[in-house]
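Title: Comparing notes on inverse folding

I've been comparing how different people in this forum approach sequence design from structure. To keep things fair, I'm posting one structure and asking everyone to reply with a full sequence. Here's the target:
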């Protein structure tokens, strides 16, 4: 068995005395692991860092085997991403989210979005928006997508200020007013039609929104806790924008 693909490293762990098991998100083969022989050498270690983008050849005798990676660098992002807390926690957050996906299940749109997120993580404002949009996309890929396009009660596309915690659908200000205390706020910047920029309060509302649905649909049913890195990312975002 053999294939060639681009991959972004989301995790590395040591294997034996000299090798490493590398976890990547690939364009066509999803989240995939492979052994890199000599991966702990002085030459290989700078390349095998989370956030780096590689050209990969995977080989194994059988498809279900771990297999080995032959890797060449395409884009070395790790040094840049380790410069700020926002970037470090942001990378750890999206990596943890990707581990919610079945291994080897292709998600090409998530791969492209991951590459976009990594290219802007050191910019706190851009990172704040891109990571939450990544979370919304991931919820959709997991089968729990939110419908923020129109009001669940009236069908209107205007005046959307709430999200129903039951249905995950947007609700207008008028329709949701009687249930204001039970609704989740919908930050205006998540509606791309309006081109609204976000402040810190809007980002915090957005992360409470996605966090609620991750907890309800993903973490609680699986008996998991949210990744600590996500709280670290929101805290780093708060410090950077305060």
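Reply #1:
Here's my take.
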């Amino acid at each position: 068995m053999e294939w060639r693909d681009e991959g972004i490293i989301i995790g590395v762990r040591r294997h034996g005395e000299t090798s490493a098991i590398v976890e990547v998100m690939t364009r066509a083969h999803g989240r995939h692991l492979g052994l890199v022989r000599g991966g702990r050498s002085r030459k290989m270690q700078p390349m095998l860092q989370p956030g780096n983008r590689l050209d990969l050849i995977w080989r194994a005798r059988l498809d279900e085997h771990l297999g080995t990676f032959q890797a060449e660098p395409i884009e070395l992002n790790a040094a840049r991403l380790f410069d700020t807390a926002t970037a470090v926690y942001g990378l750890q957050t999206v990596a943890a989210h990707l581990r919610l996906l079945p291994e080897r299940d292709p998600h090409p749109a998530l791969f492209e979005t991951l590459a976009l997120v990594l290219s802007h993580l050191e910019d706190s404002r851009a990172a704040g928006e891109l990571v939450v949009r990544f979370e919304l996309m991931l919820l959709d890929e997991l089968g729990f997508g939110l419908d923020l396009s129109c009001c669940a009660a009236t069908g209107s596309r205007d005046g959307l200020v709430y999200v129903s915690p039951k249905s995950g659908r947007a609700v207008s200000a008028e329709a949701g007013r009687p249930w204001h205390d039970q609704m989740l706020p919908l930050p205006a910047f998540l509606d791309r039609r309006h081109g609204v920029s976000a402040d810190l309060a809007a980002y915090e509302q957005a992360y409470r929104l996605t966090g609620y649905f991750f907890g309800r649909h993903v973490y609680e049913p699986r008996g998991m806790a949210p990744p600590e890195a996500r709280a670290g990312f929101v805290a780093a975002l708060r410090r950077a924008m305060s």
